[in-house]
Write a structure and sequence with these properties.
With 374 residues, the chain is α+β, with helices and mostly antiparallel strands. It has a domain of 174 residues: ATPase, nucleotide binding domain (Nucleotidyltransferase, domain 5, 2-Layer Sandwich). Helices cover 23% and strands 28% of the residues. It has eight helices and 20 strands. The chain has a seven-stranded mixed β-sheet, with helices on both faces. A five-stranded antiparallel β-sheet has the order 17-16-15-14-18, with no helix packed on it. A four-stranded mixed β-sheet has the order 3-2-5-4, sandwiched between helices. Helix 2 crosses helix 3 and helix 6 packs across helix 7.
Length: 374
């Protein structure tokens, strides 16, 4: 049995920054104009605001009293990709936030789905309880393949959290389209093309206006505003993807070059836990099966960020009554007791030029939950 005690830390704020890096929520939790760390500290000392954190580990405040509702034009720039993506926020004439997203590995997901399909088909041929086949009684309108849906939902998670943080009223969106009948080598573009309609409908449901640009237009905008781009798209830096997303946001917002914010947040959404199988295909000696794998560990969801002896890990399973986790080096280890558990996104790295450089552990510790045993 667990007793969960909330422990909040004032982390994720660059104390030397004059930029509007602190997001603000009103009394009802709706986003307002972001403010500076200095102004946020004054509001906290005056007890007219309280501390809040986003799932990115960034610090914000929520007002405890009614305030003005005027908001400047805030634009979200989205640069979609097959493996990595960029998201940029521009509020008025300032780049408040840049995010690089590592998407789930679609090849691993397809492999899991093929294995699940073979297991279900095998069971249907046996004289035992089985899951009925439902492939021929489903509506195909708006259908997205499960392997593609995982990628689409990963994008929606990021967009949903950004809409909660900032008063976004415009979105600069790169409309990726490819002539598959003419060029057979562009099959990877389908990962970006599929699900565009669902993302558009999700954004429009918040009353946000979307401006779409072609790929060649994005390149012209990047050159127009003189943002440098590198070929290595997997590198954790602004020049890999966020240069394109910022170009789209700037074009929609003000049309003038804005100095990029090099404080980059890298969200790693590649991990997918091993789920329960219908039955195991391989038996151990003596005819003993392995235990079915589950998506939870002692009631906690796999993939949660955890604290272990002052360090950060990621929950992945159990071993003989103990918690199993990945440490910062990617090695699997086990422990009996956890210090805290967080439902934040997995932040692999936070890059900053401030002399008060935040270590990799700081984004995880933005909002912590300490676990005690009875």
């Amino acid at each position: 049995m667990y007793i969960v005690e909330e422990r909040k830390l004032f982390l994720g704020v660059d104390c030397m920054s004059n930029k509007h890096s602190v997001f603000v929520l009103d009394v009802e939790g709706n986003p307002l104009t972001p403010t500076t760390p200095c102004k946020a500290r004054k509001l906290l000392r005056g007890k007219v605001a309280k501390k809040v954190w986003s799932k990115f580990g960034t610090f914000g405040i929520q007002m405890l009293i009614e305030t003005r509702k005027e908001k400047p034009n805030t634009t979200l720039g989205i640069d979609n990709g097959t493996k990595f993506e960029g998201y940029s926020i521009v509020c008025d004439k300032e780049n408040n936030l840049n995010i690089k997203l590592d998407l789930p590995d679609k090849k691993k997901i397809v492999k899991k789905l093929e294995e699940r399909r073979s297991l279900r088909r095998t069971r249907r041929s046996q004289k035992c309880r089985r899951r009925p086949a439902r492939f021929n009684n489903r509506e195909r309108e708006g259908f997205i393949a499960p392997s593609q849906l995982v990628v689409v939902n990963s994008r929606l998670k990021i967009i949903r959290e950004l809409i909660k943080m900032f008063p976004i009223n415009f979105v600069g969106f790169e409309d990726v389209c490819f002539n598959h009948s003419k060029h057979k080598w562009g099959k990877n573009f389908s990962t970006v093309e599929i699900g565009k309609t669902k993302i558009r409908e999700f954004i429009k449901s918040f009353g946000i206006e979307i401006f779409e640009y072609k790929g060649w237009e994005t390149k012209e905008l990047r050159e127009k505003y003189n943002y440098k781009k590198i070929q290595n798209k997997s590198k954790d830096c602004f020049e890999s993807h966020c240069c394109d997303s910022l170009s789209l946001a700037v074009e929609v917002n003000c049309g003038e070059r804005i100095e990029p914010n090099k404080n980059l947040i890298v969200v790693d959404d590649t991990y997918r836990p091993v789920r329960r199988k219908l039955f195991d295909t391989q038996f151990k000696k003596g005819g003993i099966k392995d235990k079915y794998s589950r998506g939870t560990v002692f009631g906690l969801r796999k993939g949660l960020v955890i604290g272990v002896k002052g360090k950060v890990g990621m929950l992945c399973g159990e071993l003989k009554g103990t918690f199993r986790y990945y440490d910062e080096e990617g090695k699997r280890r086990s422990i009996k007791k956890l210090d805290w558990v967080s439902s934040n996104f997995v932040i692999r790295r936070m890059q900053t030029n401030s002399p008060y450089r935040l270590k990799a552990v700081v984004p995880f510790a933005a909002r912590l939950w300490q676990i005690k045993y009875i």
